[in-house]
Each structure stands twice: as structure tokens, then as C-alpha cells.
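Input (structure):
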């Protein structure tokens, strides 16, 4: 049989497989960079997409995860995860070629794009559970965090380089040959499809160890993770988190381009800064997730991300561009730092809590349940953005004196910033739900912070960013205490 699994994998097979997974990851990252994020949003806006259509496009990746049940049936039917993963990946990636070709051939329809994006995400969602279960057997458990952190850092570095090149190219074309802007996006889609097919070839060369999924009734099979109370607590946290996250996330790019009038180079440049922070910190998070626990990493990184979403509410309150850019720069730096830990921990905690023999069932259940909430929230966000289009909340502070009159803008909420505030409140609630999740090797957050701080001091060059993030609140508190001490000293006439 084509792509037949092996009864057992030796060390040579494992090492080859780990290299092939990274190679496929690089090809797939090139594919997703060219067709996702700010580029996909900019292309949709260029084709006349509304807030609701942006929400629908953003909801497609999550919505199609609901069909992962098909992946379970296929694995039970063929007992060949590699075959399912490779074939479905090929079908998914050919869809990108169709989207690009249709635009180049003057079929510039949002409907056509959305239909084939659906097929792209649909086949990708079927391949996903097979890939996850396959990786659980291939990657040694004691190095899950380190390996995927290393892989992620490679992928994100490629993302940075490719994003900058494409953003510069698009801005040049927009300035000199605006009539070819949409064709440029179409060529990016065609190129992405080619990269994706190359990645599938690497995936086909990755060894797989034979596994057998239980033949018990499908309903009984899927009831197993739902009877695992700890796994259910993790599902509740994860579902609430992605719901709150995706209300706002699809509209950050829309707000920068339409609300602030920033060009694609500014948007991509800020995204690249965020990715660089992600790249430089993900290995540190991976090291500490292996040493302590993924829950500990989430308890540290999630509150920081909530603060970043709150900060979005204050973007745009200044009439000058540079203060808004400075705030956006800070937001993207700390977003990159926090999301690198959050995304890594969410993947690893699912892998860790899933029993080996039922890994694909647990992981598919996690993906399908969170998919429901992930697909609903961008639609809710799009409807809320349309609702708040004609509504504004402004809070100003006025200072008057004998010779001065100053007006300070404190809050200026509009159609998008209302979403960001709602998202931040819900994210804060989600963080509170994390307390109920238990994980083997879990360490108290305060103890982990002390040990991480000690390790970071000993490895200052490597861990500078994470170290400052962990101790930031204590540094600020120390500064405030010293200022207060100086003021008290002045009042008493003593020296501090």
C-alpha cells in the first residue's frame, strides 16, 4: 500500500521524520504567509468586502474544523494517518492555485474566493487531526516543547522575511502600477499553492509508526474525552479564550488600514516586529514549558495579552500619527512575546492531556469544540462592528488655567475599538477559568516566576525579553516606591 506505516520506528527514522516535518513546515509557512493575515484582509478589502464578509472569511478556518469527525472515520477505515494527511493536504493546497488563477483570468468574485477558501480550510482541517496524532507518536514526549519551539522559530523567521519582501513589492506596485495590485495578490496565491504542494512531498517522506484506533462505537469514542473532567475544564478555558480572542483579532488589520489609514508596509512592518519578538522568545517558552508546565506558561502570558488588547482601545485617540505608531509598536512587541507562549502552551497541553491510544479522538474533540466558538466569534465581531459604525463614545479631560487651555483625549471608542474592549473583558474572564485545569508537573506561578527569573539572570543574553516581561510589574513597582521614598525624604529633610 502507498505510504505504508512501519511497525516501529528506529532512531534514524525519527531523526529523518523530524527533519522532514520542519521542511514541510517551512513550505507550509510560505504558503500561509502569502495567503493569510494582512495580505488576505487587504485583498478582500480591495475586492470590496464588508465587515461581515471579513468576519466570514476569518471564521472559515475555525468553522471547517467541525468536519474533523471525517478524519477520525478515515483513520479508523485505513489506519494510515500519513496517507490521509498527504492526500488531503494536496487537495487543500490546489484550491489556492484555483483562487489565484481565477483572479488572473478576470473572475474577480468574492464568492469564488470564499468558496475555494472553504475547500482549502476544509481539506486542511481533515488533515489536521491525522497530523497531530502522527506527530504525537513521532516526536519524543520529553522534547515536545523544545522541538516545536525550534520549528516555530524557523517558520516565523521565514514569515518575517517573506512578509517584508511582499509588503514592499505591493506598496511599489500600488504607487506605480495600481491597476496590477489585485493581480499581485493573485500571483501570491498561485505561488502559495506551489509551495504547499512541495511541502506535501516532504510530508510524504516522513515515516509513520503503525497505530490502530479503537473500533468501538463513534459516540462512545467521542464520549471518552467528555467524561474526562480535567480535559473538559481545559476545553472550557480554551473555547472561551478563542471566542474572546477572535471577536477582535480579525479586525486589528482592518482598523489599521481603514480606521488609521496605514499602508500595507506599516501593517506588515508591525506584524514583523511582533513575529520577531515571537521568534526570539518561543524557544525560551518551550524550555520552560518542558521544565515546569504549559499551564504555568499560560498563567504568565495570558494576562499580558489581555493588557495588549486593552491598549488597542487607546490607539487613534491622538490626531498626530507618531504617538499612535509608538503605541502600536509597544502593543505588537508584547503581543509577540505573549502569543508565542500562549500558542505553544495551548498546543502542548492538548497533546499532554490526551492519552496516547485515544490521542486523535481527544485532539479532534478539542479542535471541533473550539472550532464552534472560533467560527462564531468573528461573525459576532463583524455584526458588532457594523452596529457600532454610527456610534461613538468619547471621554476627554479639560485643563484650563490663566494662560493655558489643554484638552486631553482619554478614550475614543468607535466601531472597531468597541470590539477590542469587549474582547478584553471576555479574555479576562477566560483567564480565570484556567485555574480549574490540572496538569502533570504543574508549578505554582509565583515559584515558576522566581526560578525563571533566576535562570534568566544566569542566561541574560538569551532570555532578556522574557526576563524583562516577567519582572516588568515588579520593576515598575520598585520605581514608584523609590519615587515615594524620595518625596517622603524631602518632606522630613532626611537623605535616602
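Output (sequence):
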Amino acid at each position: 500500500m502507498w505510504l505504508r506505516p512501519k511497525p516501529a520506528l528506529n532512531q534514524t527514522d525519527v531523526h529523518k521524520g523530524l527533519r522532514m516535518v520542519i521542511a514541510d513546515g517551512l513550505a507550509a509557512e510560505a504558503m500561509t504567509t502569502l495567503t493569510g493575515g494582512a495580505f488576505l484582509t487587504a485583498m478582500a478589502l480591495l475586492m470590496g468586502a464588508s465587515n461581515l464578509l471579513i468576519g466570514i472569511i476569518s471564521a472559515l478556518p475555525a468553522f471547517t474544523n467541525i468536519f474533523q469527525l471525517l478524519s477520525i472515520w478515515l483513520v479508523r477505515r485505513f489506519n494510515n494517518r500519513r496517507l490521509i494527511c498527504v492526500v488531503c493536504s494536496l487537495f487543500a493546497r490546489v484550491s489556492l492555485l484555483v483562487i489565484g488563477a481565477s483572479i488572473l483570468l478576470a473572475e474577480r468574485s468574492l464568492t469564488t474566493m470564499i468558496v475555494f477558501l472553504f475547500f482549502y480550510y476544509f481539506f486542511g482541517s481533515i488533515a489536521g487531526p491525522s497530523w497531530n496524532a502522527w506527530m504525537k507518536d513521532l516526536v519524543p514526549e520529553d522534547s515536545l516543547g523544545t522541538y516545536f519551539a525550534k520549528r516555530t522559530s524557523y517558520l516565523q523567521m521565514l514569515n518575517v522575511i517573506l512578509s517584508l519582501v511582499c509588503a514592499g513589492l505591493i506598496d511599489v506596485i500600488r504607487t506605480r502600477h495600481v491597476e496590477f495590485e489585485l493581480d499581485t495578490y493573485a500571483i501570491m496565491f498561485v505561488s502559495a499553492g506551489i509551495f504547499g504542494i512541495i511541502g506535501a512531498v516532504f510530508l510524504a517522506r516522513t515515516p509513520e509508526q503503525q497505530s490502530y484506533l479503537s473500533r468501538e462505537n463513534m459516540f462512545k469514542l467521542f464520549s471518552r474525552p467528555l467524561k474526562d473532567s480535567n480535559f473538559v475544564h481545559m476545553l472550557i478555558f480554551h473555547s472561551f479564550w478563542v471566542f474572546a480572542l477572535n471577536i477582535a483579532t480579525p479586525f486589528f488589520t482592518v482598523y489599521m488600514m481603514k480606521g488609521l489609514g496605514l499602508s500595507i508596509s506599516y501593517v506588515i512592518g508591525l506584524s514583523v516586529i511582533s513575529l520577531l519578538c515571537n521568534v526570539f522568545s518561543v524557544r525560551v517558552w518551550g524550555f520552560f514549558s518542558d521544565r515546569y508546565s504549559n499551564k504555568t506558561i499560560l498563567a504568565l502570558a495570558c494576562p499580558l495579552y489581555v493588557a495588549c488588547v486593552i491598549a488597542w482601545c487607546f490607539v487613534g485617540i491622538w490626531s498626530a500619527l507618531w504617538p499612535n505608531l509608538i503605541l502600536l509598536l509597544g502593543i505588537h512587541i508584547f503581543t509577540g512575546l505573549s502569543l508565542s507562549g500562549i500558542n505553544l502552551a495551548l498546543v502542548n497541553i492538548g497533546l499532554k492531556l490526551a492519552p496516547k491510544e485515544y490521542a486523535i479522538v481527544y485532539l479532534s474533540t478539542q479542535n471541533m469544540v473550539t472550532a464552534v466558538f472560533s467560527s462564531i466569534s468573528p461573525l459576532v465581531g463583524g455584526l458588532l462592528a457594523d452596529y457600532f459604525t454610527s456610534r461613538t463614545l468619547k471621554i476627554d479631560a479639560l485643563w484650563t488655567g490663566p494662560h493655558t487651555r489643554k484638552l486631553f483625549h482619554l478614550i475614543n471608542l468607535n466601531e472597531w475599538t468597541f470590539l477590542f474592549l469587549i474582547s478584553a473583558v471576555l479574555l479576562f474572564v477566560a483567564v480565570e477559568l484556567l485555574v480549574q485545569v490540572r496538569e502533570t508537573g504543574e508549578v505554582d506561578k509565583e515559584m515558576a516566576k522566581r526560578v525563571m527569573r533566576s535562570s534568566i539572570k544566569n542566561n541574560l543574553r538569551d532570555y532578556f525579553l522574557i526576563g524583562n516581561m516577567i519582572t516588568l510589574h515588579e520593576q515598575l513597582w520598585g520605581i514608584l516606591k523609590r519615587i515615594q521614598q524620595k518625596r517622603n525624604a524631602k518632606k522630613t529633610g532626611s537623605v535616602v
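Notes: Residues 441-445, 447-477 have pLDDT under 50 and may be disordered. The chain has 18 helices and two strands.
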